[in-house]
Amino acid sequence: MLFNSGIFLQFFAAFLLFYWLVRDSLKARNLLIVASSYLFYGWWNWKFLGLLFFSSAFDWSVGHALARLQAPRDRKALLAGSILVNLGILGFFKYYNFFATSLAELFGRLGVPFHTGTLNVILPVGISFYTFQSMSYAFDVYRGHLQPTRNFVNFLAFVSFFPHLVAGPIQRVSQLLPQFERTLVVTRTMLEEGIWLMIWGMFKKVVIGDSVAPLVEMVFHDEPPGAAAVVLGTVAFGLQIYCDFSGYSDLARGLARVLGFDIMWNFDLPYFATSLREFWRRWHISLSTWLRDYLYISLGGNRRGPARACVNVFLTMLLGGLWHGAAWNFVLWGAWHGAGLVAERIFSGDQAAPKSALPLRRIAGWLATMLIVFYGWLLFRARSWHQVAALTTALANPSAPPWLGAFAFTLAVFAVPLVAMEVWQFRAKNRLAPLSLAGWARALLQGALLVGIMIFWTREKATFIYFQF
After folding, report:
1. pLDDT in tens, 321-370
2. 218 with 171, same domain?
3. Residue 126 CB: number of other CB atoms within 10 A?
4. DSSP 272
5. 260 and 184 in contact (C-beta within 8 Å)?
6. What is the spatial distance between Cα 76 and Cα 312, in angstroms, rounded to a whole number?
7. Which of 184, 210, 227 is the last residue of a domain?
8. Domain check: are 62 and 145 in the same one?
9. 226: left (phi > 0), else alpha (psi -120 to 50), else beta?
10. How far is 271 from 370, CA to CA, in rounded Å?
């Protein structure tokens, strides 16, 4: 059930009706959320509902067991078992065929006969997101950051809440779970914010992201046609993946807001970043902070000196790349960003630039950051090592296809609304800057965006890119 589909609009309308009727009863409200969220998830494949339930029930039980245990050795062993089970499930469904095939290819190149079976494993949608979210509960209880919840229905609602279930943001237990344990009041401000985010998020996905997708395919489908086309195709993909994923995240937050819930922002104008560290503070915030708090810190963080901190940063990004999918291009993308972050730590340090040099340094930092980020998108979008090599080699090819002018014009047309909106938000230092408009102006803006959505809504409903992760 896609957010950008008619069936979801019907689902959400029916859900809102029942939600309004039971909103004052905490138990009934949370039962409705669980039942509706499981219906929403089961719409893709009902067979994976058991996996979602098991993951939730297992980590809820682990949390209670950790609270009862006193011996550090026993608590550490239980946490290790929890991690092993969660990552074992994730690894089986997401990585079994990838590693089996890669191992067979490696031994084959070495001339060693090696045969391993592959399985027809279907990747459950959203498994990476809800596994990380559920697993963080055990980490937080183990570290003493929170007490385990006694109410199983509340925990089920926290894990399965349909706005963020299949593509995040990955919610923190301490931030979201307490909202399922109290009655919520929906204010006018919440409704205005939620409606704006749903409209803007849908516009980014349906009008911008889905419209530049064919441009991306033109460049990444066949042999690369030259440097200019590869550059524009990579820029188009950077626009597509941002509008697709941040559009979903805006929709998720908007849906939650009209229900009275507050889920975290997942993007904060990332293409305005002037360093790679800043980019990762602005891009996919829920994943980058999860990796920082539960992986980087667990590896030792920066507590063991600068050299070890660089190793930990690199390993964190490498595994973050692998989180995105069972393919070597994602590993390479993670390694690219890891190497960039390490280089930034070594050469830039933490010294602030003099005020007189700040504007020039910020411009240079922005250009360098975007070069790293967008070459990373080339690695991310490529389908094989061969294509990575071909696309990189093509950057030295001055030839240009005859359709390049029309390509650039189309890309610019769809980029203009996003650039205009984000420059406004950046200058205002407010992601909700449009809500500061007068009522008539805001209605005019939202009406224009809705017209655009309706015009482009007739296309075949395209899935969200991050559903595959």
Report:
1. 988 887 888 999 999 999 999 999 988 764 444 445 578 888 889 999 99
2. no
3. 23
4. G
5. yes
6. 21
7. 184
8. yes
9. left
10. 7
Instruction: Provide the pLDDT for residue 352.
Output: 44
The mean per-residue pLDDT over the stretch 239-250 comes to 96
Task: Work out the number of other CB atoms within 10 angstroms of the CB of residue 339.
Answer: 17
147 occurs within a structural domain: yes
Active-site annotation, residues: 324
Average pLDDT over residues 377-382: 95
Residue finishing a domain among 169, 184, 199: 184
Residue with tokens 């993951």: 55
Tokens encoding 432 = 């909700």
Q: How far is CA 408 from CA 100, 206, 236, 398, in A?
A: 41, 20, 9, 16
User: Is residue 1 in a domain?
Assistant: no
Same domain, 349 and 398: yes
Domain count, the chain: 2
Answer whether residue 84 is part of any domain.
yes
- The rounded percent of the chain whose pLDDT value lies above 70 is 92
Q: What are phi and psi of 398, to 5 degrees?
A: -80, -5
Q: Which residues contact 230 (CB under 8 A, 6 or more apart)?
A: 219, 224, 378, 391, 394, 395
Pick from 407, 1, 417, 412: nearest CA to 204: 417
pLDDT at position 96 is 74
Mean pLDDT confidence for 357-384 = 90
In a domain, residue 223? The reply is: yes
- The per-residue pLDDT for 116 is 59
Do 222 and 311 share a domain, yes or no?
A: yes
The per-residue b/e assignment along 305-328, b for 16 or more CB within 10 angstroms, e otherwise, is: eeeebbbbbbbbbbbbbbbbbbbb
Residue 427: domain span: 189-468
* Residues 394 and 450 placed together within one structural domain of the fold: yes
Name the more confident of 244 and 349.
244
Q: Label residue 144 left, alpha or beta by phi (over 0 means left) and psi (-120 to 50 means alpha).
A: left
Residue partners of 401: CB distance under 8 A and separation at least 6: 225, 226, 229
Q: How far, CA to CA in Å, does 335 sit from each of 86, 319, 330?
A: 24, 9, 9
Domain shared by 327 and 178, yes or no: no
Tell me, yes or no, whether 208 and 179 share the same domain. Answer: no
Average pLDDT over residues 32-43: 95
**Same domain, residue pair 176 and 201:** no
